[in-house]
Amino acid sequence: MVVSLGCAEDNARTAQMGIWLPPKWHRLREHLQNAIDSKSIPVFIHTSNDSELLAEGIYHIMCREGNICVLCANFTYRTHLKKASDVRDKDARIPDPLAMYSPMPAKGAATPSRCISDDSEDDWTLQSMANKPAILFLIFTKDDVINSSAEMLRHQVNTNVRLLRALYPEIKLLVVMHGIRLYALHGCSSQGEAEFSQYGSQGPLIHSGALDDLICSLMVEHQVDTIEAEDDVELAKFMVNASASVELCFHRKSAMNFKVKPQGNRIQELPILTNTWITQLMQIPEVGKDAATAIALAYNTPAEIMESVAKAPEEFIQSLRNLPIGSKATRKLGIAVAKRVAALYSYNTKPDERVLDIKKTPTV
């Protein structure tokens, strides 16, 4: 059975998603439909594979395991981070342009014919049906703990993760803990069962500490994220949100959203002593890098600050408070930081006094 939502027939150039549910999780269909209606995104809900839209291998594993839901798209799903990483790798492997003019290229050097091909066109190719797997949801419930144990759950999770990683390394994998946190805390799987839990007398078979260890091991050992859902409604909402995120990855990222700050000319880099002086100034509370750089450029050494404070502390504070900071020079250093710097480099500052405790203007 297929439920289509928000998919117009004449909108062939629109990204579409499909969610395949195994028989055990057909109960999510109504919750998914409600979540999709509120989001108004193009999603198909599949409860069977009669038309063989999904690859037979992954559909067989999904039905055999019973706890795997598949989110598909009608394009190749790659995150913006993955695309940027691939571009950097491709640029790193581009050969030297001068190498093509060399009659005898060095051994092992790349030639123009070995340049990596641009596969970006495949990322923007839309199919008529959403049957390219993008995300696998590996779902575990409290029944997996009750029917076995916490150790068996850990073993089962790791085994399934390794299997799916080996079979489908290019597909993103998410582990879902469905109601396990509530069971670990209260011996139930929903808020309504908290007072009438039949497991409350003997206590839960898994505790929050063991669950946290399992989640951390998945992240550290397998680089797999874990999602915790209290009930079917929350799980359905998360799947729909994931579908919306996959749809966003189809569109090219606008250059107006993120602007890289210019790194500046390397020839104009500050001397080592100046950088050391900036680092020392940054140890003062509430003095950031921009403020420390502005102070270091105005006063090249600590001795210059000490001489200025000893000569005229009030004038030093007034000049320092109006010191412009930042790349656009739209901010001022401020009176509080100026007094703090003056107090630190004053001759009459006591060694046991803290800079933050000094409120008065230093005197000579």
Summarize this entry quickly.
With 364 residues, the protein is an alpha/beta fold. It has helices at residues 28-39, 56-65, 80-92, 120-123, 142-146, 150-167, 180-186, 208-222, 232-250, 272-281, 289-298, 302-311, 313-321, 335-344, and strands at residues 2-5, 17-20, 43-46, 68-73, 132-141, 172-178, 225-229, 324-325, 331-332. Helix 1 (28-39) crosses helix 9 and helix 12 crosses helix 13.
Give the topology, please:
Elements lengths: L1 E4 L11 E4 L7 H12 L3 E4 L9 H10 L2 E6 L6 H13 L27 H4 L8 E10 H5 L3 H18 L4 E7 L1 H7 L21 H15 L2 E5 L2 H19 L21 H10 L7 H10 L3 H10 L1 H9 L2 E2 L5 E2 L2 H10 L20
Helix pairs in contact: 1-9, 6-8, 10-11, 12-13, 13-14
Report on the architecture of this protein.
The protein is an alpha/beta fold. It folds into two domains: 2-81 and 119-250, Rossmann fold, CATH 3.40.50; 270-357, Orthogonal Bundle (DNA polymerase, domain 1). The protein contains 14 helices and nine strands. The protein has helices at residues 28-39, 56-65, 80-92, 120-123, 142-146, 150-167, 180-186, 208-222, 232-250, 272-281, 289-298, 302-311, 313-321, 335-344; strands at 2-5, 17-20, 43-46, 68-73, 132-141, 172-178, 225-229, 324-325, 331-332. It has a seven-stranded mixed β-sheet with strand order 1-3-2-4-5-6-7, sandwiched between helices. A two-stranded antiparallel sheet has the order 8-9. A hairpin with a 5-residue loop joins strand 8 (324-325) and strand 9. It is elongated.
CATH architecture of the largest domain: 3-Layer(aba) Sandwich
Separation of termini? 86 Å
Average of the residue pLDDT scores: 78
Overall 3D shape: elongated
Q: Name the helicity range.
A: 40-55%
The radius of gyration computed from the alpha-carbon positions, rounded to a whole number of angstroms, is: 30 Å
Count of individual beta strands: 9
CATH top level class name of the largest domain: Alpha Beta
Protein name: ERCC4 domain-containing protein
Subcellular location: Nucleus
Keywords: DNA damage, DNA recombination, DNA repair, Endonuclease, Hydrolase, Magnesium, Meiosis, Metal-binding, Nuclease, Nucleus
GO molecular function, one term: endonuclease activity
